[in-house]
Amino acid sequence: MAPRRAAACLLPLLVAAAASAGLGGYFGTKSRYEEVNPHLAEDPLSLGPVAAGARLPAACAPLQLRALLRHGTRYPTAGQIRRLAELHGRLRRRPAAACPAAAALAAWQMWYEESLDGRLAPQGRRDMEHLARRLAARFPALFAARRRLALASSSKHRCLQSGAAFRRGLGPSLSLGGDESEIEVNDALMRFFDHCDKFIALVEENDTAMHQVNAFKEGPEMRKVLEKVASALCLPVEELNADLVQVAFLTCSYELAIKNVTSPWCSLFSEEDAKVLEYLNDLKQYWKRGYGYDINSRSSCILFQDIFQQLDKAVEESRSSKPISSPLIVQVGHAETLQPLLALMGFFKDDEPLRANNYIRQAHRKFRTGQIVPYAANLVFVLYHCDQVKISKEEYQVQMLLNEKLMLFHHSNETISTYADFKDYYKDILQNCHFKEVCELPKVNITAIDEL
């Protein structure tokens, strides 16, 4: 009986995997973490294949780990749920006898309630618990008993719950008594964008800043998807718009991520449609959180500088033979926390900006948010102390991992760097990116696009 029960348990996973193979790779920021690490679908605690060149010299020991996490899988926001209810209600009110796709969706149970509003889903808790266990397995010396964990989060409920789930995943192995069991709320670092007046005025609240996104919504690629979905639902194309089609597509993504099922909403889209809708998502992220405008990335310099301040402190403590005061720093934020920081550091930058009119040319772009910031995305900095080195600057070395994969440093094209070289490469940002000055609104009355 046991093998049969095991097979029954695996069946939904196999069904979901089939859906994932078709559309799952195109959900952008609503992508499952398993899309970037497929081996986790079979074993959520697997560390995956060891990358070539990943091994450190034997004489290096980790001193500090700084992990910036995106929260785990979440429910749709209240706004997304309202738009879905509007579309679903429209389908239920129409006679659907001659329209099987519309009939299947009208019969679908609308189970999302506005009160769910972006909260962490049970799968999101599992994302965080499993990530904690994998990081502890990768860096056992840092996660050893009685090591201090500094845990911080944005004020959003899904982030606080993700932080609590991460801590639970570590079990009783760490000393988390007293004040250390508290999760510090730190929106200044995790939601820096909320505190940057220039970003808010010139990007967040400026309709013209998203003109490339709006142009793509009205462009030929989206028009083709709109016509196809309208035809499948037996609706006049005038009754649909890009936002409603995107809601249908994202419902497919939510059902896969939250419930591990293939939703009937997925049947509306081919892989080619999914690529177009992924580009729409990526365009928005590019212009609002990525390379589109300098202020997007420069608003993150407060977080970037804090990372280096903590690394500097660990190096100084090590040189003075003092215990490392913060060996483990884990902070939970958002896709909007990680994406600007990675842009500030120059990662995933394409030669040509993402625009409404270059969809075809961007087919092989680096800037694919589903590969960069899926649910539970994580950017990890690890500082090492190395003995038996040839020159003194090799004593302190650093690695970066994105979604548990080693990153290549720009200055060396290697997966490990001396801390001195790493810091030197970014010295201009560290010395000249001052949050208050960067985020101050211009005093003269100039147009937003001129300033951006």
From TrEMBL:
- What Gene Ontology terms describe what this protein does at the molecular function level? acid phosphatase activity; bisphosphoglycerate 3-phosphatase activity; inositol phosphate phosphatase activity
SUPFAM superfamilies reported for this sequence: Phosphoglycerate mutase-like
Q: Which Pfam families match?
A: His_Phos_2
Mind listing the UniProt keywords for this protein, alphabetically?
Cell membrane, Disulfide bond, Glycoprotein, Hydrolase, Membrane, Signal
Q: What is its EC number?
A: 3.1.3.62, 3.1.3.80
In terms of InterPro entries, this protein maps to: His_Pase_clade-2, His_PPase_superfam, Histidine_acid_Pase_euk
Q: Where is the signal peptide?
A: 1-21
According to its record, what are the GO cellular component terms? plasma membrane
Q: Which reaction does it catalyse?
A: 1D-myo-inositol 1,2,3,5,6-pentakisphosphate + H2O = 1D-myo-inositol 1,2,3,6-tetrakisphosphate + phosphate; 1D-myo-inositol 1,2,5,6-tetrakisphosphate + H2O = 1D-myo-inositol 1,2,6-trisphosphate + phosphate; 1D-myo-inositol 1,2,3-trisphosphate + H2O = 1D-myo-inositol 2,3-bisphosphate + phosphate; 1D-myo-inositol 1,4,5,6-tetrakisphosphate + H2O = 1D-myo-inositol 1,4,5-trisphosphate + phosphate
Intrachain S-S bonds: 60-386, 252-266
Top-level taxon: Eukaryota
Top enzyme category = hydrolase
Where is the protein localized? Cell membrane
Q: Which family would the database say this protein is a member of?
A: Belongs to the histidine acid phosphatase family. MINPP1 subfamily.
Q: What is this protein called?
A: Multiple inositol polyphosphate phosphatase 1
